[in-house]
Amino acid sequence: MVYNVKSKEHIFEGKKFFPQCHASTLVALDNGDILSAWFAGSYEGHSDVAIWLSKRGQRGWSDPIKVADVEEMPCWNPVLFNDNKGTIFLFYKVGKTIPSWFTMFKTSTDDGDTWSEPKELIKGDTGGRGPVRNKPIILSDNTFLAPASTETETDWDAFVDISKDGGKTWTKSGMVPRDADQFEGKGLIQPTLWESKPGMVHMLIRSTEGFIYRSDSEDNGLSWSKAYPTDLPNNNSGIDLIKLENGALVLVYNPIKGNWAARTPIVCSISYDNGNSWEDELVLEHNEKPKDKTDGEFSYPAIVSRGNMVYITYTWKRRSVIFYEIEITIN
Fold this sequence. Notes:
By secondary structure, this protein is an all-beta fold. 0% of the residues lie in helices and 50% in strands. It has no helices and 25 strands. Strand 4 (50-57) and strand 5 form a beta hairpin. The radius of gyration is 18 Å and the shape is globular.
């Protein structure tokens, strides 16, 4: 296996447009362009935090524009999603606190140049339906699965939201079972999904327990096995993966064990056996001697692919977003 890094770029100059940014997302457009979005403002959770967007074309990245904002309410965790039928979805959370946030969405049919008016994904919902941080996937039967989770003061739990009508309506799956009394921390959030064969769906999940957890479904995501730990370390920070056309999985994460541990380095690894083992690690960024917590933060990755090309974004010191373009050749 060979990684061929085609480019590594800052999407925008740090602190030029806003003091802080976090939680990027991206999609690859049919014409070869890339869209990326993130939340930004004074600091995470401040009432001025909005969703910002940039497009990468032949001339590079456009200046960021504010694409979603709610007066006196912070926005969180944008998720871009291409339905492969000409529509780009932008999901995002709104709320003063995470337990009380709700999900809004917009759509674009012109590659992100213009957007529809915002709508609630699930009317009256609080707690966060739809994708919580990572992109939905499209199953072999064209069902949309959105990786979701809830966060209360005492418990974190994962599930998926299911749409069989192209994103018009959504049905909540069963919660991922877990033995809460065996968890030292709050639990599991922010899953990332893949389908191994028709009907068989899997998730890797961020946890408070020092390791990435996993759950499996044999019924297109309606129900899930009891969550179980993998050998992959997890620092209670975001993860994301993509399944390539050849079946290999590419995971981006911080390989650090410990609840709220350091968010450096950030790496990608490959699995050739449906996520049972991981190898061929590529270090994307590492600060061995950060001056403070922010100086060593490379976190919340997002990954998409086109053919054997993968595209990755992640938070860079809360000041900017890094974009990677990598060609992956598997011998």
